[in-house]
Amino acid sequence: MPTSEGGPPPANCQRRLSRPVLGEAAALAVGYLLRAQRPDGLFVYELDWRNGAMSTENSAVRQAGAAWGLGLATLALTATADGGGGQRLAAAAAAAAAGLATSAAAAGAATAADPGGVASVEPPRVTLPTAATTAAAALSALDWWAAHAATAADGTTRWVAFPGEPVGELGAVALVALAHVELLRSGVVVEMATVARLRVALSQYLAFLLAARRPNGVGFYSLYDTASGVPSGDASPYYDGEALLALVKAAKYLGVIPPATTGGVAVLTAVADACHAAHVVGPVAAAVRGDAAETKGYYQWGSMVNYELATWAGGRAPSAATPLSPSGDPPRGAPAAGLPPGLPAAARAVYGRWLVDLATWVVEVHKVAHRRRNTGYAAEGLVHAYAYAASADGAAAGLAHRAQPIGCAVDAVLAKLTTWQVGHTWANAAIVAGGGGVRGGRGGAPRPASALAGWGGIQNHPTESGLRVDTTQHQLHAVLLALRYWARD
After folding, report:
1. What's the pLDDT tens digit per position in 315-335?
2. Helix boundaries (H) for 10-79
3. What burial letters (b/e) apply to 70-81, b meaning 16+ CB within 10 Å?
4. 0.85 cut: is pTM over it?
5. What is d(CA 396, CA 352) in angstroms, rounded to the nearest whole number?
6. What is the spatial distance between Cα 58 and Cα 65, in angstroms, rounded to a whole number?
7. Sequence-distant (≥ 6) Cβ neighbours of residue 315 within 8 angstroms
8. CA 487, CA 148: separation in Å to the nearest integer?
9. pLDDT tens digits for range 261-316
């Protein structure tokens, strides 16, 4: 088992992240998000699993991100939308559950034979919810956002209006839009009226994002008046990336581009190019030692944007009847009606190189493996970079040799962070001592009831017991990606 502190990723490594290990992590994290959802559709923002205390803080952006997490889980659980990925995820979780059952039986026998051991309450089983369950939870979250949204008088744009906040953050709009994208991609929602409602809302959110572009062409206004929708504020590397990702994925996978958009996909690539120059090229060149805070903020989102653009070769629409290829990319063929045709090979190669270069920066300059706080956000970008570098397109671009060190970084980062998950077999000594481990026995502690409420949640630090909802959501996404691209049986 890896240590909680981690260390620098080796240039060559053995894969510690097997599918059962990641399947356990994914099932636990999805279960936590479902339990953390309140009856109104929002989520418990932060829970201290040791004492049950809930934070009084809240964040529109992080709440919207949790809804996106449920959309991503639904997509991952839908086998036909992921080239059989849902089946692989279910098999991985089942293997983890079988292993845990065997371990639990052995631990029980050992405790009975050792009176000095500490008995432990039976923990929740590792079970993977169905796509229908996660889709229903995602719809509940989106219903809350629909009830707390404002629409322009002409009906073209929509934005979120979080209670008590006269000034909204653009990232919240982008993440709500992304939740719509993933849920619609999954094909789980089939009721025509619901699908139509979701697509209309998505188009309105996207139109709002486009209307918030800054006049100099670099990114988006980061804030807006929740009453009028009028944008303001400087560009934000986080929100620029989130808005771009929503716009690109909606166009690529669903063919949803706001009607008022002139220039189509070219507008999106122009903004992506300007954001890369503003948030990556300029800050890295100007920063001492190249470790630019601006680039760190853009890193995960810009990486995901670059991946989607680098793999946008055109093809039929992904749907329940048209599964993705094993690589996760749309199968080749004539574009479906309403879908943009994709990008030229030369343009895709540029975005692929940017993606891989960013991964090298976050490993070698930002030194992500040495960070003391949770870096699941970085793993989201790293797995995408590995997937591209290891693909045929990556090889054609001369990047195949960079796949292995990036993959080793994925393994190093996620192996460390998996020890920070309450209830995981790999949970670290601090978690086990507090009753958050799978097994009882010597060195363990009676499990408090609050630990069961936090079961599957992920800490932001190896010894701090707060479970913030966005920490679990980001790491869940990274785990789902690693299951798809990195792990082996």
Report:
1. 443 333 233 333 333 333 334
2. 19-36, 60-77
3. bbbbbbbbbbbb
4. yes
5. 11
6. 12
7. 329, 330, 331, 332, 333, 335, 342
8. 40
9. 556 788 899 999 999 999 999 888 777 656 688 999 999 999 999 999 999 987 44
